[in-house]
Design a protein that fits this description.
Layout: H1 7-35, H2 41-46, H3 53-78, H4 85-107, H5 119-148
Helix pairs in contact: 1-3, 1-5, 4-5
């Protein structure tokens, strides 16, 4: 007997994992940047300026949130249907604001920011929203089955 692939569940899980991976990469990069007393490869990749007191203070919050959100998304993928709201809470406002701030940077003429920087979070937000919709559909279907039995 041929096993049927559950594409909806795959997309739901990809929504969680894509967010977790991007958050993890951001958390690692920001942590290295914040804790390095000297310029590192991270500075070269992102074109970041040397750290000052204000950027250090902001990075403390940013790093904590990125590490925390990574764990939250991994927690969500453990019960993807029951914790589907994590996808929506990540897509809107988190990923939406990342995209918005990138657009603002491009409009302001920041040479570091390009349209290419908007593509990964745009793909992630689309997958997360579709995953959330699929998880809602699965929930409604399960509720309908349990009430009709």
């Amino acid at each position: 007997m041929e096993k049927k692939i559950d594409w909806k569940m795959i997309i739901i899980r990809v929504g969680y994992w894509s967010g977790a991976i991007l958050d993890l990469l951001s958390a690692i990069a920001s942590t290295i940047y914040m804790l390095s007393p000297n310029p590192t490869f991270i500075d070269n990749i992102f074109g970041w300026e040397p750290i000052n007191d204000m950027s250090f203070m902001l990075l403390i919050t940013e790093c904590s949130l990125m590490w925390g959100w990574t764990v939250l998304l991994i927690w969500g993928v453990r019960k993807p249907i029951e914790r589907r709201d994590v996808l929506l809470l990540t897509a809107i406002p988190v990923v939406f604001l990342i995209i918005s701030f990138n657009v603002v940077a491009i409009i302001q003429g920041n040479s570091y920011w390009t349209i290419g920087r908007i593509l990964p979070p745009t793909i992630v937000i689309i997958i997360m929203i579709i995953g959330y919709i699929f998880a809602k559909q699965i929930t409604k279907k399960e509720i309908g089955i349990s009430t009709n039995s």
